[in-house]
Specification:
mainly alpha; single chain; 2 domains; elongated; 72% helix
Length: 226
């Protein structure tokens, strides 16, 4: 089925009425910079498949906000793509939001804004997770419990962020979510355990947290009276 027969003409009309060339070009230029390309790619003088793919996702996400059911869910794919661009992700998300905000019109603009927020949250969460993973390469070199405890807690954060992404992507696999979140809790317990083993006088709060985390892993009810 072709796009022209799938998408009502009124949706195309709404898209063209809301389209803003300035924000579109700003995103295109920022994307070119993120991909190590020069400005010629934004004028179609140079072809780059990766740039084209992400620009198409922006266009299709705009069509989704304009009411094209054919493109339902494309905003999440745009978020996934932007989240993989590391240090450039925050700026690109801002440019994408600036452009997509033009399409938050009509009788129910909040629905479009929720989809835009979903895209931005997914992209920035993945960017944060990737930054944490890069941090672990350095944290792994730190000595003693003052190094290992932060290492495990940073790893826990990465696992919990990935759990959030699974929910944001509406992944149907409950076991995958349980695996990642459970791993996050396990790493939190490893971190508190490092403090308990390496510190002659660990803070009472850390002791309680450790006991609660270990009990949660074992399926027991922790003794919170201590």
């Amino acid at each position: 089925m072709s796009q022209t027969t799938t998408i009502p003409q009124v949706v195309f009309a709404r898209y063209h009425a809301c389209y803003n060339n300035n924000t579109y070009r700003a995103f295109s230029l920022a994307l070119a910079t993120a991909l190590g390309l020069d400005e010629r790619v934004t004028r179609a003088e140079v072809n780059d498949e990766h740039h084209n793919q992400i620009m198409n996702l922006l266009i299709n996400a705009s069509m989704e906000l304009s009411g094209a059911e054919f493109y339902a869910g494309v905003g999440k794919r745009l978020g996934n793509a932007l989240g993989a661009l590391d240090d450039h992700t925050p700026a690109l998300v801002k440019h994408a939001v600036d452009h997509l905000d033009h399409f938050a019109t009509g009788e129910r603009p909040w629905e479009a804004r929720e989809k835009i927020a979903h895209m931005a949250t997914l992209a920035l969460a993945e960017s944060a997770r990737r930054a944490l993973v890069r941090t672990l390469d350095h944290a792994a070199l730190l000595p003693g419990w003052r190094g290992t405890a932060p290492y495990y807690w940073l790893l826990a954060c990465a696992q919990i962020i990935q759990s959030a992404e699974i929910v944001l992507r509406e992944d149907p696999s409950a076991s995958y979510l349980v695996e990642k979140f459970g791993k996050g809790v396990e790493m939190l317990a490893h971190g508190t355990g490092e403090i308990m083993r390496g510190n002659d006088n660990p803070p009472p709060a850390i002791r309680r947290f450790h006991e609660q985390l270990v009990a949660a892993q074992d399926g027991r009810h922790p003794d919170v009276s201590k």
